[in-house]
Amino acid sequence: MALGTSPGVDHLNDAFEGTMTFQDVRRQIDNNLPVCAYISWGEGDGHFILISGYHVLNEVEYLYVKDPLYRDGVHSYETVAKHYRSDGKWEYTYKLKV
Q1: pTM of the model
Q2: How far is CA 45 from CA 48, 87, 89, 91, in A?
Q3: pLDDT tens for residues 27-59?
Q4: Phi and psi of 45, rounded to 5°?
Q5: Cross-strand pairs, 50
Q6: Helix, strand or coil for residue 11?
Q7: 74 with 67: CB under 8 angstroms?
Q8: Residues 6+ apart with CB under 8 A from 78
Q9: CA-CA distance, 45 to 11, in Å (whole number)?
Q10: For all residues of the chain together, what is the average pLDDT?
């Protein structure tokens, strides 16, 4: 079941095609709300990750990623958006609410 479609569960605030900017991810995390992202490898292959945090080091923006298929880790925003696990692309965004 998709987020927010299960009876009695309503955690989906917004869903859209594409990525969020790093600044938008930052605002969401600062409001104690993780970001769900669908990573696509094309041809219908892909899965969801959860972005649970961020930091900036030497002007590079990083995201903390919870990944049920691969190990959790810290990746640059650019990598998550365009080159996740080599050729994965952040294709859909699901913003949550309390």
Answers
A1: 0.82
A2: 11, 11, 11, 11
A3: 999 999 999 999 998 887 889 999 999 999 999
A4: -90, 135
A5: 36, 66
A6: coil
A7: no
A8: 61
A9: 25
A10: 85
